[in-house]
Amino acid sequence: MSPITPNYKFGHDDHYDTHHSTGHAPNLHDHSHVHGHAHEGHSDNMRGVFLHVMADTLGSVGVIVSTLLIQFYGWTGFDPIASLFIAILIAASVIPLVIDTGKVLALDIGTKENSIRDALAELAPIEGLASYSVPRFWPKDSASMIGTIHIQITPSPSSLDPGGPHSNARPTFARVDRVIERVDKLLRSRISGLEELTIQVEDSSSYYAD
User: Fold this and answer.
1) In sequence order, what E strands does the chain have?
2) What is the DSSP string of 41-101?
3) Which of 14, 48, 140, 159 lies 20 to 30 Å from 91 when distance is taken between CA atoms?
4) 82 and 102 together in one domain
């Protein structure tokens, strides 16, 4: 089952650096789709195609071999023996594919759940990240994963200062792209096989309204 951890709010950093503030609020409800490098694992679909071709090939080879043996030795038992041998080989190859496919359909991430939770726990030190919510990860195939996460960006201190010139203006946010990049880099480095990651950025100013 895909792990869904509780929403987590980090402490507000009063010393947040504002030298690279954008000066305007970005569209914080857009999705940032960050795709990974080419998948290096084996696709379950391609494994299925390979097994299908292999079964046809072995069937043809078995017919030829059993026919030659029957012709030379006259014993018809070679045909069922060849068929049984081919069936055992195919079954031994198909069982791992069935198990892997079943895990994908069941959204079973297995032992990777611990690494996912550890990776999420390491998001706290990222500067400019106020919190994260609804992290979801599920297998794409036996070797790769897909994930989504919502992150809340810390508003610039000038937006939170009641006596400041921008106190009544819409909150501004600093280094949004850099925060997204750091979240993406950390999760990919800590979660093995994370091929695609969608990061949705949201406004966290309501957390500091009080």
Assistant:
1) 8-9, 31-35, 129-139, 145-153, 194-203
2) S--HHHHHHHHHHHHHHHHHHHHHHHHHHHHHH--TTHHHHHHHHHHHHHHHHHHHHHHHH
3) 140
4) yes
Domain end call among 89, 106, 123: 106
C-alpha dist (Å) from residue 2 to 70, 117, 125, 146, 183: 55, 11, 25, 10, 19
Q: Which amino acid is at 23?
A: G
Distances (CA, A) of 181 to 96, 139, 155, 167, 176: 37, 22, 17, 29, 9
Range of the domain at 189: 112-155+172-203
pTM above 0.70, yes or no: no
Those residues with Cβ within 8 angstroms of residue 33's Cβ, 6 or more apart along the chain or in another chain: 196, 198
pLDDT (tens digit per residue) in 49-96 = 888 898 888 888 888 988 898 888 888 888 888 889 888 988 888 998
Query: What residue has token string 């049984």?
Result: 84
Q: What's the rounded Cα separation, in Å, for the pair 206 and 210?
A: 8
Amino acid of residue 166:
H
> Mean of the pLDDT values across residues 175-199?
92
Length of the chain (residues): 210
The reply to whether 23 falls in a domain is: no
For the chain, the distance separating the N- and C-terminal CA atoms, rounded to the nearest angstrom, is 37
Task: Answer yes or no: are the C-beta atoms of 193 and 46 closer than 8 Å.
Answer: no
Instruction: Say how far apart CA 115 and CA 123 lie, in whole Å.
Output: 13
